[in-house]
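Allow me, if you will, to draw on your knowledge of protein folds for a short while. I have a record of one protein: its chain in single-letter code and its fold written as discrete structure tokens. Could you please explain, in whatever detail you think fit, how the structure tokens follow from the sequence? The record follows directly beneath this note:
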Amino acid sequence: MRQIVCLATSPWYPIPTRKQQVMSRIPDAEILYFDPSATIIAPLRDKHAKPLMTKYKEPPVHPQENITVYSLPPVLPFFYKKRAINRINQKKIAKFIREKMKEHGFENPVLWVYSPVTVDLVDLVPHSALVYDCVDRHSAYGGLMDPALVDAMELELAGKTDMTFATAEALAERLRTVQPKTRFIPNGANFERFAEAAKPQPVPDDLKDIPHPLFGFVGALQSCIEYDFVEQAAKARSDWHFVWIGKEKPGVDLSALRALPNNHFLGMKPNEQLPQYLAHFDACLNLFAKSDLSKDVSPLKFYEYLATGRPIVSTRQPDQILQYAPLIHIADDAAGFEAACEAALCDTQPERTALRIEEGRKSSWDARVEELCAVLTEQGIF
């Protein structure tokens, strides 16, 4: 059985992202999955982060028989601004990982990483092969970082790898300058789960009193979302109702939308409950504002929407959704968004629903991971 050490950028719980979807599907593998570190000042900004300061001392969890999940110890802040700080952090993390590897009898596992910061760790952790899975343009996130430093660390990391993957073609092109074997493999959907939305589902209690038509968004409510299109459409069409499912990120001002009676914020829902909501949307919304970050994202929600068969209204970003243009409704401005929503309400022909579901099937996580594993086998890593 192969051994894999995965250094993730998302904790295993509560929201399944690419990291969990990939790791949970790799066959014949024993996996140590490390949730990302919090910084020592995180509790000053968010009181809910306080337990993360000591979580690394707790016993691991086992989401499935072959996967063990550990939390990493807290680290110093500003590691994306000063390389020296990152080196200190990664040396500390590497020591912790080596201890856990020894406990589990790992000697030369495949080291699978997701963040540019690990460039200062990979030489400190024994491994038989190094895989970098690039899921975002990390330097475009903003905040306390030096974008040039982040980009430089990422290129240095990719240059050390035996194989690099990227979720967007533009990301892959950039990484090929240092790792020519880089492969583009986008995100996917838990097809079996989200295809349930194409079948009759009970109406969730918090949807029962909201009139149709319902336009629904599922995902993190963050700054890269195009809220203005919805605000203008909601004001122009008071008979339309917009449902938002997801956690509101710090720094996002949703007061204008909250003031409108036809916008409904339902909070975050367990992933397994989402098909019950999606089944009652008249159209699903993929709303990325134009930006360098949005251009190269690979939105899980979009592939999940495809699996439901529901009509989809989308902005023109990210680039990879354009290949599905014949099956969706794309808006370039607020007026176009209203028109796209209108068109989506009529997009209920069974044959078009079936085509979207089939594209969702082709984009399943099972298919994506099968492709990943085939590449790694071809390269002699698996």
About this structure: The domain at 2-187+365-378 is CATH 3.40.50.2000 (Rossmann fold). The chain has a mean pLDDT of 95. The first strand starts at residue 2 and ends at 7.
